[in-house]
Design a protein that fits this description.
The complex is a heterodimer of chains A (about 110) and B (about 110). Chain A has about 110 residues and is mainly β. Chain A is built from no helices and 11 strands. In chain A, a hairpin with a 3-residue loop joins strand 4 and strand 5. In chain B, the strands form 3 sheets. In chain B, strands 2, 5, 6, 10, 11 and 12 form a 6-stranded mixed sheet that branches. A 4-stranded antiparallel sheet of chain B has the order 3-9-8-7, with no helix packed on it. In chain B, strands 1-4 form a two-stranded antiparallel sheet. The chains are: A mainly beta (about 110), B mainly beta (about 110). Chains A and B meet through strand 5 and strand 10 of A and strand 5, strand 6 and strand 11 of B.
Chain lengths: ~110, ~110
């Protein structure tokens, strides 16, 4: 158990809908990362937050957004969902967000029908 | 720019035989290098990391990796494979303390034959 929690574990929704994925980092970690893992694209970095501020952006679509709250939990919002958004979404956390070890949550499996 | 190449997408070994998973990296800075393992339907678990101390890094479950700067490699090895080692393995490079992004390899799927 990494200490990073993600909810929900599974999510099934329809095209065009909007969903919110939630992540709680390890105690003491200030930085949160979001990743998407799919069969065709592999593991892709989406976005990173540090202490409430966006720090780095990867291959995140404009339909996706994220935020980190004062209690350091983070939410990833996916809107206007398409079939191709079906994937495993991971959250990870680290202490400072400066290239050190990231600890991964168990993931949220999203299925868009 | 940082990048990682995992040279084998699939590796198959017999139980009790050595494991070698190959990784080459490209980095403009002194990199930090990691190996993560992902068991089916699970999150990623850190196996080991290199951060410019000893070049031979020991990790969990008997795995180790050697950082070779001249070859820009960070291959993962284990002397004797166990059935429970069957999983997906990811090599990762980061810019170390000058940066914050992780760059993942495409993964190597390890099969262990009984």
């Amino acid at each position: 158990d990494s200490g990073v929690t993600q909810t929900p574990k599974h999510l099934i929704t329809a095209t065009g809908q909007r969903v919110t994925l939630r992540c709680s980092p390890r105690s003491g970690d200030l930085s949160v990362y979001w990743y998407q893992q799919s069969l065709d694209q592999g593991l892709q970095f989406l976005i990173q937050y540090y202490n409430g501020e966006e720090r780095a952006k990867g291959n995140i679509l404009e339909r996706f957004s994220a935020q980190q709250f004062p209690d350091l939990h983070s939410e990833l919002n996916l809107s206007s969902l398409e079939l191709g958004d079906s994937a495993l979404y991971f959250c990870a956390s680290s202490v400072t967000g400066l290239g050190e070890t990231q600890y991964f949550g168990p993931g949220t499996r999203l299925l868009v029908l | 720019a940082q990048s990682v190449t995992q040279l084998d997408s699939h590796v198959s070994v017999s139980e009790g035989t050595p494991v070698l998973l190959r990784c080459n990296y490209s980095s403009s800075y002194s990199p930090s290098l990691f190996w993560y393992v992902q068991h089916p339907n699970k999150g990623l678990q850190l196996l080991l990391k290199y951060t410019s101390a000893a070049t031979l890094v020991k990790g969990i479950n008997g795995f180790e990796a050697e950082f070779k700067k001249s070859e820009t490699s960070f291959h993962l090895t284990k002397p004797s494979a166990h059935m429970s080692d069957a999983a997906e393995y990811f090599c990762v490079v980061s810019e170390g303390n000058t940066g914050n992004q992780f760059y993942f390899g495409t993964g190597t799927s390890l099969t262990v034959i009984p």
